[in-house]
Amino acid sequence: MQIYISEEAVVADIQEKFQTMYPYLKLAFYRKPHTKGACSPEEEQIPADTPIEKVRMLHSFGWLDISYYRTAAAVEHDFSYIFGLSAQILRKAGTLWLETTVTDSWTLEELNNAGRPAKHPTFQLPEEPSED
């Protein structure tokens, strides 16, 4: 699976293509790269309506491999190395989005599956006895 990064794209275009393939993952772009194992500061996040041309350091365009077997770290590296974009993959956890700093070595499939809601509750509270 690949997505095309064009010169005319805006951040939202790339985010939507990525999330179509991985509904429990999200891409965020930042003004500066994050260090290994660290989170990106929220105030550095690039708005979704920003044209890619305004934020990338390398002015190239082309295909990016986002196959299910690739790790978050590899995809983030390719965004930086090929396109000059500082990207961070986030995983859904209930109603929150968590940066994958600790799980960068997981594949996109593993991360997407981890973000999928449980089919059954993990626990149930005991019912209160009725007082008839």
Provide structural commentary.
The protein has 4 helices and 5 strands, in the order βαβαβαββα. It is an alpha+beta fold and about 130 residues long. It has one domain (about 1-115). Strands 2-4-5 form a 3-stranded antiparallel β-sheet. It has a two-stranded antiparallel ribbon with strand order 1-3. β4 (about 85-95) and β5 form a beta hairpin.
- State mean pLDDT (0 to 100 scale): 83
Largest sheet: 3 strands, antiparallel
Residues in helix, % = 25-40%
Percent of residues in beta strands? Answer: 15-25%
What's the alpha carbon Rg, rounded to whole Å? 18 Å
* Quaternary structure type: single chain
How far apart, in Å, are the first and last alpha carbons?
Answer: 61 Å
Query: Ranges with pLDDT <50 over ≥5 residues?
Result: none
Task: Let me know the number of strands.
Answer: 5
The total tally of domains equals: 1
> What is the general shape?
elongated
Class by SSE composition: alpha+beta
List the strand order in the largest sheet.
Answer: 2-4-5
What letter string, H or E per element, gives the SSE order?
EHEHEHEEH
Q: Count of helical segments?
A: 4
